[in-house]
Amino acid sequence: MAFALAPTAQQDGYRLEAFETIGSTNAHALEQARAGDPGRLWVVSRRQESGRGRRGRAWETPAGNLAATLLLVDCCPLSLAATLGFVAGLALSDALKAVAPVLIGADASEDRNSRTSFQLKWPNDVLADGSKLAGILLESAMLSERRFAVAIGIGVNVVAHPTDVPYPATSLAALGSDATAETLFLALSDAWMQAERAWNGGRGLESIRRAWLTRAAGLGSEVAVKVEGEVVRGIFETIDEDCRFVVRDIHGGTRRIAAGDVHFGAVASAAAV
C-alpha cells in the first residue's frame, strides 16, 4: 500500500509528497516553504535518516515506522503557533485508536473491553500503556517580515522502537497491532481535519485544551519538570489557557511552565534530579 491522503483531506486542498527515504521531513517541508509553497502540505517517508526530536535530540525512523510532517503557512497568529502541537496530539491519538484498537497488558485476556490507552504527555509525546509511542516536534521559519511557516513533525514507532533510551518505549507491533505506517497516515490525515476544525485558527483553543486534558498522562499525579537546569516538583494540576504546564507545589503555590522535560510518579523522584 502506498501513502495516500484521506478523501476529506484531499477535498480540503491538502497535498502530499511521499518519499522512500529522506533526511528530515521537517527540514524538507521548511525548504519547500522558503521556496514558495503555500502550505497545507503533508511530507511523509518510509525512512528518515536525520530526524530530530526536542532540544536537538536524534529521532531515528527506521523503515516501517512513520515519519510525517504537515507544513502550514500563515495559518494563525504567530503567538498561537505553538498550540498546534496539542492539535496534532489529539489528531494522532484519534488516528491511533482508529487503526490499533489492540489488547494490551497482563489482564487484557480477562477483560475483553480493555483496550490500548493512548495518552498525551505534555508537551509533545503520545504514550501507550505508559511507554513512549510517538513524538511531535514543531519547527517554524520566518518567510518575510509578516509571513511564517510551521512544520508539524510526527514520528510514530510502528514496527520498531528504541531500546537504548532512558525511558520506556514501545511500538504498535510490540503492542500486537498489524497496523502499517501507510494505514496510520491515512487515518492521521483524516483525523487532522476534525482537530483543525475544532482549533479553528486558534479561536477554538479552549475546546482543544479541554479535550487534551481528558487524555492527559499523569494528570493529578506527582511530577518533576526539568526547566533550564532547575527541577520543579509538585502535582500536575492542569494546562492553562496558553497550554502551559501548571504544577502545584507543596505550599499550594502554582508554577506555569512553557517548556521542560516532564517526569511522573516514582521517576519524578529519581530521574529528574
UniProtKB/TrEMBL annotation:
Q: Which keywords does this Swiss-Prot/TrEMBL entry list?
A: ATP-binding, Biotin, Ligase, Nucleotide-binding
Superkingdom, taxonomy of origin: Bacteria
Q: Does the keyword Isomerase apply?
A: no
Look at the named UniProt entry and state the broad enzyme category this protein falls under: ligase
Any one GO MF term held by the record is: ATP binding
GO CC field: cytoplasm
Q: What is this protein called?
A: biotin--[biotin carboxyl-carrier protein] ligase
